[in-house]
Write a structure and sequence with these properties.
- The chain is 27% helix and 24% strand.
- The chain is α/β, with parallel strands linked by helices and 371 residues long.
- The protein starts with a strand and ends in an 8-residue tail after the last strand.
- The protein binds zinc ion (2 copies).
């Protein structure tokens, strides 16, 4: 007798998410079934809902970063270090479940996040293919998915509070090449900016300045490790630049991290970096239009190093777990997930996330009793 699994399905952009029942899948060798404890509603889900990502095979079950307990394992199944995984283990999995390993991006260019065959849970798999998203009571972990045990010190809420923004931030820090004592400016106090600030501090930054809004997120940024915050809503671009220059002895930041997703943020950010500094762009996950800068003044003469940062790899996932464990007592990742919603409240969660009411909405698919 096959059991059923309840999931929230996004049928198409701009229409309400609906609840559907799926049959529990048969597991081929090497596969597992995850009982979802927490998933998330992140900016990507809002973009999916607004139809701003191309090539999405709607209907989909969103929720690309998810954690829970192994419900069924058709083993042997092991984590990336070869340790066996068993039913009942608390785990997380890396959401990119396929890259081809053969294309230019995967091989010669070593940029697997740009592999054209890349498949990501909650984004690139149709609901017709099964339980490939975290807005479901159970998630199908196909053979080959990178699964890792959640360290004992890491709660489900801390893992998902960090979530995709934390994985992105590990990649940002790698791209930033922060040196001991650097001043790092973070533009944006959303899930990515908050984690980037926390990690920049732990990566050796002497001073971390976060620019964002509203006030409660800036307060959280300080709890995460920011030394100084600048309220986006209460300052003009000129005032923000002046504040940054004041804090850096008139020099500018060694590293500026864009985690705001705004064309105007780029125009400000290049001005805030010091001569010979670096600017890492991570917030432009969708096309938000053109930025206007003077290339002579802000890039060439400044000798500025501008680096993009797209997606994440298994190494970022594993290092995110290390960071969560290592800094469990000092970085309140769980506070980023401000509110938890059940599956029947997903439309409300999406609306709250779209309105930027909260840094991140968490999803607990077992929160309500449905029948
Ligand atoms: Zn490839
Ligand atoms: Zn996400």
């Amino acid at each position: 007798m096959s059991r059923t699994v309840l999931a929230a399905v996004m049928p198409a952009p701009h229409v309400p998410v609906v609840l559907r029942e799926f049959a529990e899948p048969e597991l081929p060798p090497g596969a597992a079934l995850l009982r979802t404890a927490r998933s998330e509603v992140c900016g990507t889900d809002v973009h999916l809902w607004h139809g701003r990502l191309s090539g999405v095979p709607y209907p989909i079950i969103p929720g690309h970063v998810t954690t829970g307990t192994l419900d069924a394992v058709r083993g042997p199944l092991a984590d990336v270090t070869g340790r066996p995984l068993r039913e009942g283990d608390r785990v997380a999995f890396f959401d990119v479940h396929r890259t081809c390993g053969r294309c230019l991006a995967c091989t010669a260019h070593r940029t697997p996040t740009r592999c054209p065959s890349r498949r990501v849970y909650g984004i690139t798999d149709s609901a017709a293919d099964g339980l490939f998203g975290g807005w479901a009571q159970k998630v199908y972990l196909e053979p080959g998915v990178t699964v890792a045990k959640l360290p004992d010190a890491v709660t489900f809420d801390a893992y998902i509070g960090g979530g995709c923004g934390l994985l992105t931030s590990v990649h940002i820090i790698e791209r930033s090449r922060i040196s001991l004592g650097d001043t790092v400016i973070v533009q944006g106090a959303g899930a990515v900016g908050l984690s980037a600030a926390a990690l920049a501090k732990r990566a050796g930054a002497g001073r971390v300045i976060v620019i964002g809004a509203p006030a409660d997120r800036l307060a959280l940024a300080k709890q995460m490790g920011a030394d100084e915050v600048i309220d986006l809503a209460a300052t003009s671009p000129a005032e923000r630049l002046e504040r940054v220059l004041q804090s850096t002895g008139g020099i500018g930041g060694d590293v500026v991290i864009e985690a705001a997703g705004s064309a105007l943020a780029f125009e400000e950010g290049v001005r805030m970096a010091r001569n010979g500094g670096a600017y890492v762009i991570a917030g432009h996950y969708t096309n938000v239009g053109d930025s206007t800068i003077n290339v002579h003044e802000h890039i060439n003469r400044k000798h500025l190093d501008i680096r993009g940062c797209w997606g994440s790899e298994v190494g970022h996932f594993l290092r995110a777990l290390i960071a969560l464990e290592e800094y469990a007592d000092e970085v309140p990742w769980h506070l980023i997930g401000a509110k938890t919603y059940g599956l029947s409240e997903i439309n409300e969660a999406l609306a709250d996330a779209a309105a930027l009411k909260i840094p991140k909405a968490l999803v607990d698919p077992w929160r309500e009793t449905y029948r």
